[in-house]
Specification:
- The longest helix has 17 residues.
- The chain has four helices and two strands.
- It is mainly alpha-helical.
- Strands 1-2 form a two-stranded parallel ribbon.
- The two termini are 25 Å apart.
- One of its GO terms (molecular function) is serine-type peptidase activity.
Length: 105
């Protein structure tokens, strides 16, 4: 979750109250202002049709990262919602495995 204010209301408000009731909590929980703190690799994977964590979440983090001069790794799965299925799910697992092998040893 990049920014709780863009998450589904039934979950966001259950844990965080409303943005009006808890503006400090939403601001502190947002990763948008923390992108510049990135010191090592970060892989972000997103389905472009995700109705749960909308694409705007990761795109805003990318914008914050660019503004801060940091370089997260970003991979989009076209045509997928919150979970990948079929052959693309195999690809997802391979992608994560390769990422860990390449950068997390």
């Amino acid at each position: 979750m990049i920014d709780w204010k863009y998450y589904e209301v039934m979950y966001g408000e259950r844990y965080m109250d409303t943005p009006q009731e808890n503006p400090d909590g939403y601001r502190e929980a947002s990763l948008l202002n923390k992108a510049g703190n990135l010191k090592s690799r970060l892989l972000i994977i997103h389905g472009d049709e995700d109705p749960v964590v909308v694409l705007q979440q990761s795109l805003q983090f990318l914008k914050s990262s660019i503004d801060a001069g940091v370089h997260p790794d970003y991979f989009i799965y076209p045509g997928h919602e919150h979970n990948m299925v079929g052959r693309d799910r195999v690809h997802l697992h391979e992608h994560i495995t390769r990422y860990f092998e390449d950068f997390c040893r």
